[in-house]
């Protein structure tokens, strides 16, 4: 199936890679369930479109991932943090044959010499040019990103600054035009 317009990634995405269409344009081949779709956008554009739809962008997602996991190359991307959709590349995204995997749809991996056979949730398997050890590392990194992001989203601060037993304080505007924040103890993290 060919989709010419806008396409948003959802939880059912199993993998995504690049492919040239009949006119020679580089597009995204997306595997969803038992079917594949050819979207008239590159894989990077599809991820960026999905992120922009919910108010983010790919550049910010990469920056956020590196802030959480450190300055790693070929980092996983949370393409929808609300739904926990994460994709990771098994090789450089600059390579046309890069495959982006959803770790939630990887069932099993098997060593095939210097390659890895990846069994997917839809019963399909794909052989990639990467040793199993390195591929497993990429899966674990993507799952770590998902877990840390979920935890931080549910508990945004490691410390609670709210003490229920304290009397509620009010911030008032001063005659000079500012506010009376000086009544609060300053926090510098």
In a few lines, what is going on in this structure?
It contains three helices and ten strands; from the N terminus they run ββββααββββββα. It has 189 residues and is α+β, with helices and mostly antiparallel strands. The chain has one domain (2-154).
General description of the model:
- It is a single chain.
- The chain has 189 residues and is of the alpha+beta class.
- It has one domain.
- The chain is 24% helix and 27% strand.
- The protein has a seven-stranded mixed sheet with strand order 1-4-3-2-7-6-5, sandwiched between helices. A three-stranded antiparallel sheet has the order 8-9-10, covered by helices on one side.
- A hairpin with a 5-residue loop joins strand 2 and strand 3.
- The chain is elongated.
Quaternary status = single chain
Q: Give the mean pLDDT.
A: 89
Strand order of the largest sheet: 1-4-3-2-7-6-5
As a whole number of angstroms, the C-alpha radius of gyration is 22 Å
The percentage of residues in β strands lies in: 25-35%
| Whole-number tally of structural domains | 1
- Secondary-structure element series: EEEEHHEEEEEEH
The structure class reads alpha+beta
**Secondary structure tally, helices:** 3
Distance between the termini: 52 Å
**Dominant shape:** elongated
Number of strands: 10
Low-confidence stretches: 161-165
- Helical content stands at 10-25%
Largest sheet: 7 strands, mixed
């Amino acid at each position: 199936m060919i989709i010419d317009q806008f396409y948003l990634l959802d939880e059912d995405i199993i993998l995504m890679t690049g492919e040239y269409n009949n006119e020679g344009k580089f597009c995204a081949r997306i595997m969803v369930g038992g079917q594949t779709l050819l979207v008239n956008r590159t894989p990077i554009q599809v991820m960026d479109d999905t992120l922009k739809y919910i108010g983010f962008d790919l550049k910010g997602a990469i920056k956020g991932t590196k802030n959480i996991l450190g300055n790693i190359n070929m980092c996983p991307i949370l393409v929808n943090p609300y739904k926990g959709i994460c994709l990771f590349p098994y090789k450089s995204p600059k390579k046309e044959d890069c495959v982006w995997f959803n770790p939630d749809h990887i069932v099993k991996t098997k060593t095939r010499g210097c390659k890895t056979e990846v069994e997917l949730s839809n019963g399909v398997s794909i052989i990639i040019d990467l040793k199993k050890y390195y591929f497993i590392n990429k899966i674990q990194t993507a799952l770590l990103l998902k877990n840390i992001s979920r935890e931080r989203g549910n508990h945004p601060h490691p410390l609670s600054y709210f003490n229920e037993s304290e009397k509620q304080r009010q911030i008032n505007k001063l005659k000079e035009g500012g506010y009376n924040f000086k009544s609060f103890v300053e926090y510098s993290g």
